Amino acid sequence: MKALIITNSLGERSGWERYSLDMVNGLIQNGFDVLVICHKKNDSYKNIKQIELLPDPLRLRKNQFTALWDAIRFFLKNDFGKPNLIHCFVEPYLFFTFILSLFFKVPYFLTIHGSYGVKGFDCIIYKTIQIFSYIKAKKIICISNYTKNRILEYGNFENIVIIPNGVSDKISSFTTSVEKENSIIGIGVLKNRKGFHITLNALALVRENIPDIKYYIVGIQRDKKYFELLEKIVKEKRLEENVFFYGNADDSKKFELLNKSKIFVLNPVSNEFNFEGFGLVYLEANALGLPVIGSYGNGGEDAIKDGYNGFLVHNENPEESAEKIKILLEDDALYVKMSDNAREWVKDFSWDKISQKYISVYEIQE
User: Fold this and answer.
1) Which of 36, 127, 132, 365 is deepest in the core (most CB within 10 A)?
2) What are the φ/ψ torsions at residue 182 (nearest 5 degrees)?
3) In angstroms, rounded to a whole number, what is the distance separating the alpha carbons of residues 181 and 332?
4) Please, what is the angle between helix 196-207 and helix 318-330, to 10°?
5) pLDDT of the chain, 366 residues: tens digit per residue
């Protein structure tokens, strides 16, 4: 079976890239002939056919109609042959995917991760394009119940199914026997939606009982004003000896910090057009045996079973977050139980299982 995959790139630098790489590998392992149409090729993956054709997805919204020209260019130069299906992994490319499906007269599928699934709805032109593309899709695959419900606010789409993100099997291989510290860790781009400011305020409360508590923050600093806010909180709460910023750390450093941390904490904040679609980072932390703390009101609700592999707290509530952190750090028996639960929980999200769910949704025979 031939599949055209539409994405920005393959790799490890972002959620889109990791999802795309794992999905493509899963399809290839299941006998699919795959061609990836992308913004940037990654020559590290010689076994995957890639064509560099598309504009930067984060800038595409300014001119969606370039999608028509891009589709024509590919159709005229195509030597892959007619695909059985087209699957768009990155939301800004959905109009390109729709046009390409018209040219080839094959069904297309859309994966909706989070914010970019609804951002087009703030403009009448893009709203029309987006809704039309959703209606015509064979299936809209949402990665969480929360994402599905946010999409349904804009139309009664009957072609939605839910398939969560998967966790790479190689994650657990990064587990080491390094001694654990009284530390928590958060990973993600430093922006308001990730809720690092909430965790900092929770940390100040935890330190009253656990003075040696440490908080490792790993993530690229794209929003200067938000980073300045975090620095201000650190200074005002006198957390200079407790908080450590690591920027966009490589995998080696990231897993080193995860292995010596006891708890993964991320308290996302949602609004009309920005939200966490799932929370893969929670599952990656679970794979290493870390209980996790997240918040209600986002896709993390599907990644965290409250009281089992971690805790869910109410939105923008540092007091509740602090309480859960203290419970896990002070109750050794509970910590061990949740750590074991975390490793067990994540088995249901292996890419082997998730890939099979996608293949069953395609419902197309050669």
Assistant:
1) 36
2) -75, 75
3) 13
4) 50
5) 999 999 999 988 788 998 999 999 999 999 999 999 999 999 999 999 999 999 888 877 656 677 778 888 888 888 899 999 999 999 999 999 999 999 999 999 999 998 888 887 777 878 888 899 999 999 999 999 999 999 999 999 999 999 999 998 777 777 777 788 999 999 999 999 999 999 999 999 999 999 999 999 999 988 999 999 999 999 999 999 999 999 988 888 999 999 999 999 999 998 877 888 888 999 999 999 999 999 999 999 999 999 999 999 999 999 999 999 999 999 999 999 999 999 999 999 999 999 999 999 998 544
Q: Where are the domains of the chain?
A: 2-166+350-362, 169-348
Residue 148 is inside which H or E element, if any?
helix 145-152
CB 36 within 8 A of CB 23: no
Q: How far apart are CA 273 and CA 170, in angstroms?
A: 33
Classify domain 2-166+350-362 by CATH number: 3.40.50.2000
